[in-house]
Amino acid sequence: MRSRKFLKAEQAPLVWDAPGLLAGVDEAGRGPLAGPVVAAAVILDDQRPIRGLADSKTLTALQRERLHDQILAKALCCSIAQASVEEIDTHNILQATMLAMRRAVEGLRLKPTKVLVDGNRLPTLDVLAEAIVKGDALVKAISAASILAKVHRDRLCEQLHTEFPHYGFAGHKGYGTPEHLEALQRHGACVHHRRSFSPVAAALARTAVATLVVEAAPVVFATVETVHLDLRAAP
Q: I need a surface site. Which of 26, 105, 117, 201 has the fewest CB within 10 A?
């Protein structure tokens, strides 16, 4: 009789990843109250390494700008895409983020064999993909994508600032800071605000109520006092 050890099947590890180009994908701008959500996809060149790649949130603005230029110069290919405020309000921020990520991957000049995405969700893609939690700190290609997406979106916010300076977009980049919330309360929402986000919806509701109050206010006519003058000559 054969031993139990002989009958026990041993499974050899299988390597599912086919050799080829690896793309990293990340996004910027899921949390802000205004502006699009931006995603980037990057295929790095192993022959041209870039020092200092890390999660964009851990870098200074100057470091991000420097690495941004190096990534564009040294990577095999890069793609930056976005989902608009209208798409965020229509589909919700999660689905809009997935849409931006898919557009970024589809925009790559070279088609990757595998895509590594930061987080725990995957966009719909026609290539092999894997979600990696905290991937922007673990995978160089995702770090590069996070930097491109962050710098691109920050620059968009600076453009919004020139159009609507009273909101302070250049400083808070659309996030719900006390200064931004105060500006929303004072000026209401602009066309770049995400109407499906509760602070913006509240600001719009206040504006609507104020408009109704003004329209419903009774019209008060000033009382005109008539003065009669006696122009007869004195006796």
A: 201
